[in-house]
Amino acid sequence: MNENMERLWNKNYCKVMAANFSLFFAFYVLTPLLPLYLSEHFGATKDVIGLVLSGYTITALLMRPFSGYMVDSFPRKTVLIASFTAFAVFFAGYLAASTLLLFTIVRTLHGGPFGALTVANSTVAIDVLPSSRRTEGIGYYGLSNNLAMAIAPTVGIFIYRYTHSFELLFWIALIVAVAGLAVDASVRISHQPSTVKHHASTMSLDRFFLVRGWLLGLNMVAFGFCFGVLSNYLAIYSKEVMGITGGTGTYFMLCSVGLILSRLQGGKALRQGRVTHNAATGMVISLVGYTLFILVPGMVSYYASALLIGLGNGHMWPAFQNMTISVAPNSQRGTANSTILVSWDVGMGLGILLGGIISELASYSAAFWTVAAVNAAGVALFFLRTRRFFLARNLNNSVK
What we know:
The protein is mostly helical and 400 residues long. The chain has 15 helices and no strands. It has helices at residues 11-28, 34-42, 46-73, 76-96, 100-128, 134-163, 166-185, 196-201, 214-240, 248-265, 267-271, 275-295, 299-326, 333-361, 364-393. Helix 4 (76-96) runs antiparallel to helix 7 (166-185) and helix 9 (214-240) packs parallel to helix 14 (333-361).
């Protein structure tokens, strides 16, 4: 390792990582229990529960393109603190919501600051990273939300099992979010002059979506589609087709383990700037995982696919994020971040929608065969077109 290389784990980067863990912990500690809360406290039916909870995702998706514009147009620290404050305050709204209508309004609106916060925090993380370690640092940054996603649901279920108190869980989420806000408030970033006047006079699609990276975004839609089908229809497919009951929690835990291991395993390649290598490795591993899942039904292949998909996505995600940021000028880092997040969200949404339609018209097996086909198409697109597309537009000589 080069002794003159700048220090990756600087104080501000560690703070942003901790704040990112806090925001995702606060979100995921409630996620698996909200359907139960809506059913027990408001008597909501399954279709109403789905409608109430989907509002959060829709609002977050709608907010993200504007979040990129705001992060690039106004002082990033200001946008970060404002969005984190709103994100934390909405947890108090859950405590105050006394009717299903009020809860629905609070939950739907809560998606807005979440969408803005995820863009703002990841952009600030890039700002506080030393330029020589930025590619590697973006990869490690994802560990913080991977850990939260792996730990928080288990913690929430454990607390509820012994207390049966949703109010306590809402308080925990609020306190953790406020703690994350306090940590982010202490982060120091270099001054970013406001460019709002310039942007106002040249308003275009490129202020909300990184046009230079459109093919990277399209490729990410394909991979988001696959995970959208998997995450929403795994439990029912496992039960009805494979006869596996009660294994969904273990499946996603193994998926999270794979995500974490991949970030550690892929650190060297990212440190060397080999982002296309990491992307290719991740896509191929994921393709093997999805194919194994549908082609070889059985307990061993079922859980092995979880580890492989986690490993693959963990390699692929930071690589695509690095590539998207690398084709954007520094003044559009926020737009680049929102573009990759929106692309994933669009893919997830299409997966949820089309996965349900295919399952209804044909079968759940047909839906998962579609996943394998779409994943293979995404891999082919990368090797045939996206890799060259990126290299032709790359503005960062340290990545390849």
